[in-house]
């Protein structure tokens, strides 16, 4: 005996319709949670980057819902203007991802890197020769004006 819910449509698309229904209910629950908070409260709690993420997520969600609506009406959304809007939103989402990744990237402390390299390349023999060269340089720089007059 056939399922009474499948009388109106072909059995072959039953799984697709169940997946569609599941996706719609998931989106609805997310939107309900988002819509339960006043927009002003959300904006006050978020910094500019998070506000941009929220705005893009909202636009993407609404466009996705409209995309689904077009499909249910038998209209190919790839030939509709909504495709161009979705691509524009995706471009902005990728830009925000780049900004976020750049903030998370490790920063180079030049001073620490220099000390690390200096200590990693330390050679005790070079230190002795550098100390001798430094001492010799100090001896020549210790000549006072009185000593210069005597040399003449």
Question: Any overview of this molecule?
Answer:
With 152 residues, the chain is mostly helical. The chain has two domains: 12-104, no CATH class; 110-151, no CATH class. Helices cover 75% and strands 0% of the residues. It is built from seven helices and no strands. The longest helix has 25 residues, at 48-72. The mean pLDDT is 77.
Query: Biggest sheet: strands, sense, closure?
Result: none
Q: Count the strands?
A: 0
> What's the structural domain tally?
2
Strand content: under 5%
What is the rounded distance between the termini?
123 Å
User: How many helices?
Assistant: 7
- Going by helix content, strand content and strand pairing, the class is mainly alpha
Notable characteristics:
152 residues; mainly alpha; 0% strand
């Amino acid at each position: 005996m056939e399922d009474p819910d499948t009388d109106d449509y072909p059995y072959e698309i039953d799984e697709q319709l169940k997946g569609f229904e599941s996706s719609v209910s998931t989106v609805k629950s997310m939107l309900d949670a988002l819509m339960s908070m006043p927009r002003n409260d959300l904006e006050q709690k978020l910094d500019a980057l998070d506000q941009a993420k929220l705005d893009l997520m909202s636009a993407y969600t609404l466009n996705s819902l409209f995309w689904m609506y077009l499909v249910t009406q038998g209209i190919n959304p790839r030939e509709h203007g909504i495709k161009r809007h979705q691509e524009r939103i995706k471009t902005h989402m990728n830009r925000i991802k780049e900004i976020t990744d750049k903030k998370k990237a490790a920063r180079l402390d030049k001073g620490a890197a220099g000390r690390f390299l200096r200590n990693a390349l330390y050679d005790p023999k070079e230190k002795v020769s550098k100390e001798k060269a430094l001492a010799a340089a100090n001896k020549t720089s210790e000549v006072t004006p009185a000593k210069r007059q005597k040399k003449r």
